[in-house]
Amino acid sequence: MIRLLVPSASLTLGEPIRVDEDEAHHLDVRRVASGARVEALDGAGARASGTVERAGKRWAFLAEQITHAPPPPETLVAVGGGDKDRFLWLAEKAAELGVTTLVPLETTRSRHVENRLREGTLEKARRRAREACKQSGNPWAPVITEILAMPELNQRFGVTWWLADDRGVAAPEVTAGADLGWLIGPEGGFVAEDLSILERELAPVHVTLGLHVLRFETAALAAAVLTADRRR
């Protein structure tokens, strides 16, 4: 079935919702007929089935049935992702794997990446994450925060922290509703100063993601998969 994205909290039974230009273009490319049945997601847990109607160049969605998925437990990934293009790719895949919060983390090494992530790129990352929800059917789009300094993590999030470390322990099992946050270093890893801040502020458990050193985006996805596996 064709899926559409609609603004957060906009789904209401019996009230037409105007489809934005990107989604209208999607309908045109797919040669969808007026009156066709589609599914709509708002990225905040709501999913609706209904029909689309065309009026001139504009489209509207009319919801006939709406369901609300409960919020999932927190799967937060704070990543020292210096390269912006690889972070954009990560935003898409994080949405597919159910990451709830993606935090671009400022680290000593990520500050010096020439093609580093900047605030202006984050809105593009959020759009890509929502598009990935449409493709995958995930009703909850990940929250992608502004770029945060490491001391801000303790102030903003109340989760159990795990730090990706190839010398760490195997990930323990956790309860199904446990809120977890991962700390993923940039290329070359966290430097001693970074680790000192993280240990002092967050006291994370050092958890291994395998035998080899991973790129930040690979490590983030491995962390998301491991988290889902260890929740019981």
Topology (SSEs and partners):
Blueprint: E1 3-5, E2 17-18, H1 21-29, E3 37-41, E4 46-55, E5 58-68, E6 75-79, H2 84-96, E7 101-106, H3 119-136, E8 143-144, E9 148-149, H4 152-156, E10 160-169, E11 180-184, H5 192-202, E12 205-207, H6 216-230
Parallel strand pairs: 1-3, 6-7, 6-11, 7-8, 7-9, 10-11, 10-12
Antiparallel strand pairs: 2-5, 3-4, 4-5
Helix pairs in contact: 2-3, 2-6
Q: Please, could you describe this protein's structure?
A:
There is one protein chain. The protein has 232 residues and is α/β, with parallel strands linked by helices. The chain has helices spanning 21-29, 84-96, 119-136, 152-156, 192-202, 216-230, and strands at residues 3-5, 17-18, 37-41, 46-55, 58-68, 75-79, 101-106, 143-144, 148-149, 160-169, 180-184, 205-207. Helix 3 (119-136) links the parallel strand 7 and strand 8 (143-144). Helix 2 (84-96) packs parallel to helix 3 and helix 2 packs parallel to helix 6. The longest helix is centred in the middle third of the chain and has 18 residues, at 119-136. It is elongated and about 60 Å long.
